[in-house]
Amino acid sequence: MSECLKDIEREIMNCRKCELWKYRTKCVPGEGREDAEVFLIGEAPGKEEDRQGRPFVGNAGKLLNELLEIANLKRGDVFIGNVLKCRPPNNRDPKPEEVESCSPYLIRQLNVVKPKLIVCLGRYASSFVFDLFGLKFDGIGKERGKIRKVKAWNTVYVLPTYHPAAALYKPQLKEVLVEDFRKIREVLKKDTLKKKTLLDFGIE
Ligand code: URA
Question: Nearest 10 degrees: CA dihedral of 114, 75, 185, 189?
Answer without folding.
Answer: 40
